[in-house]
Amino acid sequence: MNFTAAYRIFTALFLLIVTICLGMTLNDFTSVFYVFLPLLLMLGSSFIPFFKQRKLRLILFAAPIVILYCFGFYPWLTNYQEVAASSSTSTLDFIIIPVWATLYGAGFVVLHEIALGVARAFNWGKLKSY
Questions:
Q1: Is the pTM of this model over 0.90?
Q2: Contact by Cβ (8 Å): 36, 21
């Protein structure tokens, strides 16, 4: 099994786990949209040739999404009713966490590409024989 297939399987399983753990308690379409959009972007990015050329691009894009979902977003979701009752910005918080996770992932890919360009410009990583 190649890396891209394993990545797609992991993403699909992560999407399934998030769906089961939420118990589909989200009855608002925009809530479901914001929960699943970053995960669908993770899955869709594995079909884009730009991401398939380097494995690190997929990892850099997916890592912030998975980390923020596991440690920041999912615990917040499990207490959604309590947070919604006690906070006037709960809907805004609900939207911002997945959006920032996706932006962090895209930012990491951009920084990686800039670093690759700088390394190529200075021929770093290649030994010159005299």
A1: no
A2: no
Residue type (1 letter), 68: L
CA-to-CA distance for 43 and 58, rounded, in angstroms?
10
CB 72, CB 92: distance < 8 Å: no
Contact 11, 46 (CB under 8 A): yes
Instruction: Read off the pLDDT of residues 55-72 as tens digits, 9 standing for 90 and up.
Output: 888 888 888 888 887 777
Task: Identify the burial level of 28 via C-beta atoms within 10 angstroms of its C-beta, where 0-12 means exposed, 13-18 middle and 19 or more buried.
Answer: exposed
How is residue 100 written in tokens?
């920032």
Q: Tell the burial category of 51 from Cβ atoms under 10 Å away from its Cβ (0-12, 13-18, 19+).
A: buried
CB 38 within 8 A of CB 73: no
Residue linked to tokens 């589909």: 24
User: What is the number of other CB atoms lying within 10 angstroms of the CB of residue 37?
Assistant: 13
